[in-house]
From TrEMBL, chain A:
Residues 60-132 form the Chemotaxis phosphatase CheX-like domain. Keywords: Chemotaxis. GO terms for biological process: chemotaxis. Pfam families: CheX. This is Chemotaxis phosphatase CheX. It comes from Geodermatophilus nigrescens. It comes from the Bacteria.
UniProtKB/TrEMBL annotation, chain B:
Keywords: Phosphoprotein. The modification 4-aspartylphosphate is found at residue 54. GO terms for biological process: phosphorelay signal transduction system. This is Two-component system, chemotaxis family, response regulator CheY.
TrEMBL record, chain C:
CDD domains: AdoMet_MTases. PANTHER family: CHEMOTAXIS PROTEIN METHYLTRANSFERASE, CHEMOTAXIS PROTEIN METHYLTRANSFERASE 1. The keyword Electron transport does not apply. SUPFAM superfamilies: Chemotaxis receptor methyltransferase CheR, N-terminal domain (SSF47757), S-adenosyl-L-methionine-dependent methyltransferases (SSF53335). GO terms for molecular function: protein-glutamate O-methyltransferase activity. Keywords: Methyltransferase, S-adenosyl-L-methionine, Transferase. The keyword Transmembrane helix does not apply. It catalyses: L-glutamyl-[protein] + S-adenosyl-L-methionine = [protein]-L-glutamate 5-O-methyl ester + S-adenosyl-L-homocysteine. Signal peptide: none annotated. It comes from Geodermatophilus nigrescens. Residues 1-273 form the CheR-type methyltransferase domain. This is protein-glutamate O-methyltransferase. It comes from the Bacteria.
Length: 174, 129, 274
């Protein structure tokens, strides 16, 4: 696939294709929902509605390296991440959830969503190990596919983002 | 007869889920956070009937672990089942070529694990819904 | 909103009677979650309304869909694999020696659901005989147009291919198609699909050498079971083979069949002159 009309900041020929040419929002939503239905619970549907994230968020992300290189990022409120961890572990949850448990669970969900996103993109590609934190790596605002959903009424976003390119560095990331 | 499984995954949440599922089927389990830790368990003499193996892990990944297990004839009877979010056609081919017997793609349900164990003849008791 | 105890009991009894699977008390949430999509599809607001509607006016197709939504077997590929093992170990060799090399084997997957049974048969034959695609035709039928279309498309979600499909067969016979998996064109060419209501007069098909009619008879009363078995028999070759579900039999229903034990499963063959 060649990026012919990929925006004013693109130089022809020496750039990988824009992420929107490789995967669409419906596929990212489908992948995320399958992860939730299988791992979180069979009635844990995701409602595709945007809502503002709370001030205190937690993100997890995995890198993909290959014909397309970038990052898959999950972001949700910190309280939602705790609830998500309990739902994921169900009867296997320890009595007291430590921060490490929440980081690990959110990281594993990024791994599952990221692995399946990678399989839809052109390959061969390598998947990195998940990382977790309050501030995910900045992506290129012009080259990010973002899906907003509600889980149990709480906002959650999934972004498939190309890295921030040099000429964009002075711009304010989304 | 007790069936034993070594659950290898760098995510402790995933280890808990897989371990809990297998114990529900009557398995005795141990866990390892990466391939090298899993090899240490085997060298120690705890040789399981089944290993469930994540692919992307620090220190030693799942594919390297499969290769290492396959070089030791003493571990020939161990059934190797990948449980990973690596889900390209080519990745599954690679894992099978290296010596993995089965492949479960994350995300999975407990039913998926049960069906695969039934195929492998490693389901100790018939479990219903 | 939780299912009332009476309605949950009715569902429990139905599922136990039709599938021998026990739904433990406390599984109300599961019944809700699995039946809600079915209720919505039938234009009903919730599972209570669905249960009331089917209780007051039972139709085999509705009860079948309820049981299928609550039991997990039908979405699995090789689970309860004995009737498939029997196909390659016993049935295929017998048919190959009885038929000429130019004769095409005809197999019927009756009540094919989303197609796992038909494609499982196709994969087994493709792996067991050279040029299977030119020597076998598989007819997959279902009462539901949606299921027939799904079978024809031959596309399965990640969660579906995770269910009891051996990994070597997945890589041999499927390719990725976006976030789904698509069965190979060779297998799709082996499978012809059509809508078909087993409880009504059947279209002209066959004659079939092998029929898979699994977990269908249990949903019908005795006279309908007898009528279905008679109609199926009319579409079969005299030396054909019929496979039923593990909880089903022709014994006590229709005495024009003989039962043959193959390993851990049974096949039924038309009795001569019956």
């Amino acid at each position: 696939m060649t990026a012919i009309d990929a925006g004013p900041r693109r130089r022809a020929g020496d750039r990988p294709p824009a992420v929107a040419e490789l995967i669409d929002e419906a596929t990212v939503t489908e992948i995320t929902e399958q992860a939730w239905l299988a791992l979180v619970g069979e009635d844990e549907v995701l409602v595709p509605l945007p809502a503002p994230l709370p001030a205190d968020t937690l993100s997890s992300w995995v890198g993909i390296t290959g014909p397309w290189t970038g990052t898959v990022v999950l972001t949700t409120g910190r309280d939602t991440a705790v609830e998500l961890t309990r739902a994921l572990l169900r009867e296997h949850a320890p009595e007291v959830l430590e921060d490490e448990d929440v980081d690990d669970a959110l990281g594993e969900l990024a791994n599952v969503v990221g692995g399946n996103v990678k399989a839809v993109l052109p390959g061969p590609s390598a998947l990195g190990l998940p990382e977790v934190g309050a501030t995910p790596p900045a992506g290129s605002p012009a080259d990010t596919l973002r899906v907003d959903v509600l889980w149990r009424g709480q906002p959650l976003t999934v972004s498939v983002q190309s890295p921030l390119h040099t000429e964009e560095e002075n711009e304010v990331p989304l | 007869m007790t069936v034993r499984a070594l659950v290898i995954d760098d995510s402790r949440a995933m280890r808990r889920i897989v371990t809990g599922t297998l114990e529900g089927f009557g398995y005795e389990t141990r866990q390892a956070g990466h391939g090298q830790e899993a090899l240490d368990v085997l060298h120690e003499g705890w040789v399981p009937d089944l290993c469930t193996i994540d692919w992307n892990m620090p220190v030693m990944d799942g594919l390297q672990f499969v290769n290492a297990v396959r070089t030791n004839p003493a571990w020939r009877a161990v059934t190797l089942m990948m449980v990973t979010s690596e889900s390209e056609h080519g990745q599954i081919v690679r894992a099978l070529a290296a010596g993995a017997h089965e492949y479960v793609i994350k995300p999975f349900t407990a039913d998926a694990i049960r069906d695969k164990l039934a195929l492998l003849g490693l389901l100790p008791q018939e479990v219903s819904l | 909103m939780t299912l009332t105890a009476t309605r949950f009991d009715w569902v429990r009894q139905l599922v136990h009677r039709e599938s021998a699977i026990v739904l433990a008390p406390g599984k109300e949430y599961l019944v809700e979650a699995r039946l809600l999509p079915l209720a919505r599809k039938m234009g009903l607001a919730d599972v209570d309304q669905l249960v009331d509607a089917v209780r007051s006016r039972p139709r085999p197709d509705d009860t079948r869909q309820i049981v299928e939504a609550l039991t997990t077997n039908e979405t699995s590929w090789f689970r309860d694999g004995d009737p498939f093992t029997a196909l390659t170990s016993t049935v295929l060799p017998a048919l190959q020696s009885a038929r000429g090399p130019a004769e095409r084997l005809q197999i019927w997957s009756a009540a094919c659901s989303s197609g796992q049974e038909a494609y499982t048969i196709a994969m087994l034959l493709e792996d067991a005989m050279p040029n299977a695609a030119t020597r076998v035709s598989i007819t997959a039928t279902d009462i539901s147009r949606e299921m027939v279309e799904r079978t024809r498309a031959g596309r399965f979600s990640q969660l579906e291919v995770n269910r009891g499909l051996p990994a070597p067969m997945l890589v041999r016979h499927f390719q990725r198609a976006g976030s789904e998996w698509e069965v190979s064109p060779t297998l799709r060419r082996m499978v012809a699909t059509r809508e078909c209501n087993l409880a009504a007069p059947l279209p002209r098909m066959g004659p079939f050498d092998v029929v898979y009619l699994r977990n269908v008879l249990i949903y019908f009363d005795l006279p309908t079971k007898q009528a279905i078995l008679r109609r199926v028999r009319e579409l079969m070759r005299p030396d054909g083979w019929l496979f039923l579900g593990a909880a089903e039999t022709t014994l006590g229903v229709d005495d024009s069949w003989s039962r043959v034990v193959i390993g851990r499963t049974s096949a039924y063959r038309p009795l001569k002159g019956a």
